[in-house]
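Worked example

This section walks through a single chain of length 219. The input is the sequence exactly as stored; nothing has been trimmed or padded.
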Amino acid sequence: MQSLPSGLILRRLVFGAAGALCVATGAAAQEYPSILPMRDATIVYDVQSTGSGALRVEADISAANQKLRLSEVGRPDYLLIDRGAEQVILVSPDKGMSFAVATGGFLHRQLDPGSNLHFSRAGTRSVAGIACTVWRIEGPHGAGDSCITNDGIILSAEGKGDKPDSSGRIPSGRVTALSVNYVDQPPDLFDPPDGMPTVNLPPSLFQSMVSGITGLSGP
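Given that input, the structure is written out below as tokens.
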């Protein structure tokens, strides 16, 4: 099976955050946060995890087009998440190629009881100078919390698994926004460069990565 090159898509915490930013909120008896951003923004996150250590990630959001671009500061590769097209693309300028995988409806999943996630409010606080609501999240593979603004921007998230990984460590991670700039995004920021060849990877690759990352089953 083809595999993606080392880089952003192999960093489980960042990839999981991408899915969380793009999953829709469903109407149900239980209360859920809205995590569909309503405004264009550029956010710089500090990311800490047992799998990847410390890194700095920039997230560019196009609210109207439901697109997200993730890049690790100082590295050329970047990840494009297109909710409308149900597709994730890793762009690797150094290799002169991009790698695309279909998400099979995952980016339109609802946070309803079928997702096996339970949410509860846990107060409010401020992150990067912006107010947000703290949500406690419990799932089949662990628990954590996230602070989310009224316009759907994730300002912080922290979680811990309930079982050791292959190295015997309990997986854990933390994402914290260092800065948030609400700015209009140019549409071409969310497309691979013109003329760059794209390798289409099997959907099973995405499905295998989803389980255990966000607490949601694969498409």
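What to look for: The CA atoms of residues 165 and 171 lie 6 Å apart.
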